[in-house]
Write a structure and sequence with these properties.
The complex is a heterodimer. By secondary structure, chain A is an all-alpha fold. Chain A contains 15 helices and no strands. The longest helix of chain B is centred in the C-terminal third of the chain and has 32 residues. Classes of the chains: A mainly alpha, B mainly alpha. Chains A and B meet through helix 1, helix 2, helix 3, helix 4 and helix 5 of A and helix 1, helix 2, helix 3 and helix 4 of B.
């Protein structure tokens, strides 16, 4: 089947799903529609020759669903309907019209679909990356070599942003030091919605116990094989985080010990610092930031293990992503909902 | 045509951000915008009948380079997806705190300042 036609269909479905997500009054169903949007998107990536992004998108989508459901479950007591004031609406519509006009002008300057820039202009960076990736970095996955070698500066920035965002979320979510929250009026435990304080049912627990090891193994495989196959630090780290989060959700929240939280935060910091240290070390060893000194010494293409700095940074990124996400989710899972007095009756009625 | 459909997707997200009252809906709108932009970038890097930018072991470099899709937008997009996840977690944390302070997700009710 023609890929263009297929993509049109997928995009049409995506727009419909997005509209449903925005217009349903029930928050839970709108979040689940967002999940549908994400999965359609990952199919589109798969068609567009980006298997790595497709994997990442699926895993990210699952995590997004968990975060959003955790944030809104038992909280959407008051159905908020209607839009903002009329003037605001008018202003918004005007802005969207302006955006559409500007966007259409810009879309006219985009290369026609199916003919990327590297087809029309000789020696654009992408062309050089494609030609030099294996020789310069030892990695045959060109995307990973761009992320971790040619443009490793960007990745350092990305890791910094991710680290900052997660530290910010942790600072917002922590309970110690927030005196106002010390004596909550009413605790709604998150597991009351799904199976009580002892965790979920025995079926879920058993399946989780079986599946956990395989998920972790798959994540590690992706991290270690990022240079030859779709995968890499981000994807593998996300999948390991998924395995850990599955355990948190299936067992009760008391299952997360303080020691594992400390270990996770240490691991996240170590991952981020390794990446930074690698940059500095490259500076001394090879004379430039993020210049691959290992691959240059071994010109032959070795089979599996340490083949260059790309793999070291992949492991570092995997450690950082998985442990940081684990930390945030354990925080989210142990969060109690504090509800104002006015809404206590509503909840009691709902419970009783 | 594909590009304009992507723009429509982004516009749907913008509409939610500007018009919706519910904070969670606004967060969802921001996510839709992010998804639209990511897809736009990957679409721009597609080569007709191209393959993924992953070299097989025996492949000749020149033939591989002339048949692969553009790897640069893909590298950008994967970073963007990860940053999007981090930002979503931050936004959700803010939403939870807002709910605790005001007892509602309604953004029009959050006007009063409390120290």
């Amino acid at each position: 089947m023609d890929i263009t036609l297929l993509l049109h269909g997928l995009l049409f479905l995506m727009i419909i799903t997005a509209l449903i997500a925005m217009e349903t009054s029930n928050l839970l169903s709108s979040i689940i529609s967002m999940g549908g949007l994400g999965f359609l998107l990952s199919i589109a990536y798969l068609l567009l020759g980006a298997p790595e992004i497709a994997i990442t998108q699926i895993v990210v989508e699952i995590l997004v669903l968990i975060v959003l459901i955790r944030a809104t479950i038992s909280r959407d007591l008051t159905a908020i309907t209607g839009d903002r004031e009329f003037t605001g609406l008018l202003f918004a519509l005007g802005l969207i019209v302006v955006f559409a006009l500007v966007g259409l002008r810009i879309a006219g300057h985009f290369p026609p679909f199916g003919q990327p820039v590297l087809d029309r202009i000789a020696d654009v960076p992408s062309q050089q990356y494609l030609e030099l990736a294996r020789e310069k970095t030892g990695s045959s996955n060109v995307m990973e070599s761009i992320l971790l070698d040619f443009r490793a500066y960007d990745t350092l920035g990305v890791i910094t942003v991710l680290f900052t965002a997660i530290v910010g979320a942790l600072a917002l979510l922590r309970r110690k030091g927030r005196k106002a929250l010390d004596k909550p009026d009413l605790d709604i435990d998150c597991y009351e919605v799904s199976g009580g304080k002892a965790g979920m049912s025995i079926i879920v627990k058993t399946v989780t116990r079986w599946i956990k090891g395989f998920l972790m193994l798959f994540g590690m495989y992706l991290i270690l094989n990022g240079h030859v196959s779709p995968g890499g630090g981000y994807t593998g780290g996300l999948i390991i985080a998924c395995a850990l989060i599955l355990t948190i959700l299936a067992e009760s929240q008391q299952h997360v010990s303080v020691r594992s939280k400390v270990a996770a935060s240490a691991l996240a910091s170590i991952g981020a610092l390794t990446l930074l240290g690698l940059a500095v070390f490259d500076q001394t060893a090879a004379g430039a930031f993020f210049k691959d000194f290992i691959a240059r010494q071994s010109a032959k293409y070795p089979a599996f293990f340490i083949i260059g700095t790309t793999q070291v940074s992949e492991i570092a990124i995997g450690c950082m992503v998985s442990s940081a996400l684990f930390l945030v989710f354990s925080m989210l899972a142990s969060l109690h909902v504090r509800v104002r007095d006015g809404q206590r009756d509503l909840i009691n009625r709902k419970r009783g | 045509m594909l590009y304009s459909m992507c723009l429509i997707l982004i516009a749907v997200g913008l509409y939610a951000v500007f018009v919706k009252k519910n904070v969670v809906k606004i967060v969802l709108g921001l996510m839709v915008i992010e998804y639209g932009i990511n897809l736009l970038l990957v679409l721009a890097g597609y080569r007709a009948h191209g393959h993924a930018p992953i070299m097989q072991k025996a492949a000749a470099v020149a033939r591989f380079a002339s048949g692969s899709v553009d790897p640069l937008p893909q590298a950008l997009v994967i970073s963007s997806i990860i940053i999007g996840l981090g930002l979503l977690i931050l936004m959700v944390a803010i939403c939870i705190r807002l709910y605790e302070r005001y007892g509602t997700f309604d953004i029009t009710q959050m006007r009063r300042l409390k120290g």
